[in-house]
Design a protein that fits this description.
heterodimer; A: alpha+beta; three-stranded antiparallel β-sheet; 48% helix; globular; B: five-stranded mixed β-sheet; two-stranded parallel sheet; 7 helices; 7 strands
Chain lengths: 365, 208
C-alpha cells in the first residue's frame, strides 16, 4: 500500500452502473478513497429528438415531447404548448389553467417520491426504499385513475388540457391526498431523524451558493444551496398567480438538504392540489377547434419537478416548427457534480449523483 | 430577485457598437420576454459581460440555420409547374438578417437565452456560413455544454472554447450532424427496414 500512497488512479463509474438509473459515464480520478477529478462523458441515450420535432407537425410534437422523459413527461408538452400559445396569442380557459396545475403537481409528487426512495436504496436502507415507493404508488394510482396512464398522462394540448375532473374524480383525488399526506409526514420524520440516512447524506456532496450561481443550477439543487428561484413564483403561468406557492430553501447544499427540499415541496404540492380542487372554476377545458400557429418565436418556461424547464420555439407558418430547442433542468445541474464530488468518498459517488435527481434521457434528448 | 432593468435597451446598445434590434413583450402575468438581435456577432462578448454584471444567468443557447425563404424551396420541388418564375429566381439575392447576414439556409442564428429574475432576454447573433463566433464559456460556465453541442451539430466554429470536445456524439461520428441528411435506416443501424436483410445477403455473397 505504501507504494501507492499519494498516487492517483482513474476509475470508471458507468456508463452502466447498478446505482445509476440511466447510462452516464464518469471518469473519476481518485487518491485512495477520495475523489480528486471528475470528467462526465455523456451521449449514451442521445436520440436526436430535437431534430425529430422539426420533421413532425406542431400538434404531433405535443405527443412527441411527452416522450422525451418519463418522470417529468408532463412538463415537456406543458412548456411546449405554452410557447405555441404565446406565438398564436391564445389565452387558455380558466378551468384549463387550474387543471394544468393539478396535472403538474401530481407529477411532481410522484417524481420527488421516486428520488427520495432511490436515496434510501443507495444508502442500503431498502425497507425505506420500498416504503417510499409504496407511498408513491398512491400517486401512481391517481395518475392511472385520472389520466388512464401511470407515466405519460397526455394531459396537455394547445389551448388547454385533454382531461376533465367530474365530481367523482375530485372526491377520489381528495381521498387520495388525505391518504398521502400523513404517509408523507411519516416519511419526512424518518428522513429527518434516521441515523442511516443522516450519516450518508448530511454534509455529503455540498454545493455552495457561489458554486450554484456559477453553474447556473436550478430546481431543488439550487434551492438547497440557498437560491430562491422557482418559476412558479418568479414568472407565474397557468393558475399559479392565484395560488399560494412557497419555495422552501436551505443553505447547506448537501445531499440531505436536496432531499429535504423535495420532501417539503411534496407538502406544498399537496396543498396546491387541495387549493386547486377547492377553487376549480367551471367552464370549458380547452379552446374549440385546432388553433393555427402562425410564424413567430417564443420562449416557454415552467417549473418541472427538477427545476426550470425552458423551451424555445420558432415557427415559419408551416405545420412543422422551424426549430424547437429545450433545456431541461438536469442539463446545468450535471455541471455542479464535479464540485459536489471533489473530495467525496468513492462510496458516496452514487448518492451524490442521485441527489441532483439526474435525468439522462432529458439531458441528451 | 429582480427582472430586466428599465434601461436594458440603452445598456445593450452601449455594449454593442454594431447596433441592436431590440423588442420586448410582456405576458398577462407580467413576465417580460425580450429579444435583442446583434448587428455584429462579435459583440456577443461585450453584451455577455454587461449581462454578467447585471446578474443574468445564461440558461440556454440555441442554434439553427434559418430556412431560406419559401420561394427558393418551392422552386426545386415544383419547378416544372412554375418554370417561368423559377428561371428568374436564381438572380435574386437572399434576404438579409439584421446586421446583413444572408438568410440562405446555410447561415446560422445563435440565440443566447438569458434569464434575469422571471424575465427572458434572448440575444440573437447571426453568422454567415463558414463563420465563427467567440465562446462565452470564459464568462458563463453554463455556456460550456451548449457550445460543445452546437459544435458537434453544425460546422459553426466556436472560437476559444476551453474544452472543444464532443459532448453527446461519439468522435467517430461525422461532424455537423444537423447539416447532413442521415437516412433513417442508417440512423437506426438498419434495424427497422429490409436494409439489414440486404446487408446479410450481401455478406453471404448475394446467394439467397
Amino acid at each position: 500500500m505504501s507504494a501507492s500512497a499519494g498516487k492517483t488512479f482513474t476509475i470508471p463509474v458507468g456508463p452502466l452502473h447498478v446505482a445509476l438509473e440511466e447510462p452516464m459515464y464518469f471518469h473519476i480520478g481518485v487518491e485512495g478513497e477520495t475523489v480528486r477529478e471528475v470528467d462526465i462523458r455523456a451521449g449514451h441515450v442521445h436520440r436526436g429528438v430535437e431534430y425529430l420535432t422539426t420533421k413532425r407537425s406542431i400538434y404531433q410534437d405535443v405527443v412527441l415531447t411527452e416522450r422525451i422523459c418519463a418522470l417529468c413527461s408532463n412538463s415537456h408538452p406543458e412548456t411546449f404548448v405554452m410557447a405555441c400559445e404565446q406565438i398564436a396569442g391564445l389565452e387558455i380557459p380558466e378551468r384549463a389553467a387550474y387543471l394544468r396545475v393539478i396535472a403538474a403537481e401530481i407529477k411532481r409528487i410522484a417524481s420527488h417520491l421516486f428520488n427520495l426512495g432511490i436515496l434510501a436504496h443507495l444508502t442500503g436502507y431498502d425497507a425505506l426504499f420500498m416504503h417510499a415507493m409504496q407511498v408513491r404508488e398512491i400517486m401512481q394510482d391517481v395518475k392511472e385513475t385520472l389520466f388512464g396512464n401511470r407515466m405519460d398522462i397526455a394531459a396537455m394540448c394547445i389551448g388547454g388540457v385533454r382531461y376533465d375532473l367530474d365530481d367523482e374524480m375530485r372526491a377520489y383525488l381528495v381521498a387520495a391526498l388525505d391518504k398521502l399526506a400523513p404517509e408523507v409526514d411519516a416519511l419526512a420524520q424518518t428522513y429527518r431523524r434516521n441515523r442511516t440516512i443522516l450519516r450518508r447524506s448530511k454534509g455529503v456532496g455540498a454545493l455552495t451558493k457561489e458554486q450554484a450561481i456559477a453553474c447556473a443550477v436550478v430546481g431543488p439543487v439550487a434551492r438547497a444551496s440557498g437560491l430562491e428561484y422557482d418559476v412558479r413564483i418568479a414568472a407565474p403561468y397557468a393558475a399559479y398567480d392565484r395560488l399560494r406557492v412557497t419555495a422552501p430553501t436551505l443553505v447547506d447544499g448537501d445531499v440531505w438538504s436536496r432531499a429535504m427540499i423535495r420532501m417539503t415541496e411534496i407538502g406544498v404540492s399537496i396543498q396546491l392540489l387541495r387549493d386547486c380542487l377547492r377553487d376549480l372554476p367551471d367552464g370549458p377545458t380547452r379552446l374549440p377547434g385546432r388553433p393555427d400557429i402562425p410564424a413567430g418565436r417564443a420562449m416557454g418556461k415552467c417549473e418541472a419537478p427538477r427545476g426550470e424547464l425552458i423551451y424555445f420555439l420558432k415557427t415559419n407558418g408551416a405545420d412543422e416548427p422551424e426549430r424547437v430547442k429545450w433545456r431541461v433542468p438536469s442539463f446545468p445541474n450535471w455541471d455542479a457534480l464535479p464540485f459536489m464530488l471533489r473530495g467525496a468518498k468513492i462510496a458516496d459517488i452514487a448518492i451524490i449523483v442521485n441527489s441532483i435527481d439526474p435525468c439522462v434521457s432529458c439531458t441528451e434528448r | 430577485m429582480t427582472g430586466l432593468p428599465q434601461d436594458i435597451q440603452a445598456q445593450l446598445g452601449a455594449a454593442a457598437p454594431g447596433g441592436i434590434d431590440y423588442s420586448a413583450t410582456t405576458s398577462p402575468h407580467g413576465a417580460v420576454t425580450a429579444w435583442c438581435g446583434l448587428g455584429n456577432s462579435e459583440d456577443i462578448l461585450a453584451v455577455g459581460k454587461a449581462l454578467l454584471k447585471l446578474g443574468a444567468r445564461l440558461a440556454m443557447v440555441s442554434a439553427l440555420q434559418p430556412a431560406a425563404p419559401e420561394e427558393a424551396e418551392e422552386e426545386e420541388e415544383e419547378a416544372p409547374a412554375e418554370g417561368e418564375e423559377a428561371a428568374a429566381k436564381p438572380e435574386k439575392a437572399p434576404p438579409m438578417t439584421f446586421g446583413g447576414t444572408p438568410i440562405d439556409g446555410k447561415s446560422y442564428e445563435i440565440d443566447y437565452h438569458f434569464v434575469l429574475g422571471g424575465d427572458f432576454l434572448t440575444v440573437v447573433a447571426y453568422v454567415a456560413s463558414g463563420g465563427a463566433i467567440p465562446s462565452l464559456t470564459p464568462y458563463f460556465r453554463s455556456a460550456n455544454w451548449p457550445e460543445r453541442e452546437i459544435m458537434e451539430n453544425y460546422s459553426l466554429v466556436v472560437r476559444d472554447h476551453p474544452d472543444p470536445r464532443r459532448l453527446f456524439l461519439d468522435p467517430s461520428i461525422d461532424a455537423s450532424a444537423l447539416e447532413r441528411l442521415i437516412p433513417y435506416s442508417t440512423l437506426v443501424n438498419a434495424a427497422s427496414t429490409k436494409a439489414l436483410w440486404d446487408q446479410v445477403l450481401a455478406a453471404k455473397g448475394g446467394a439467397s
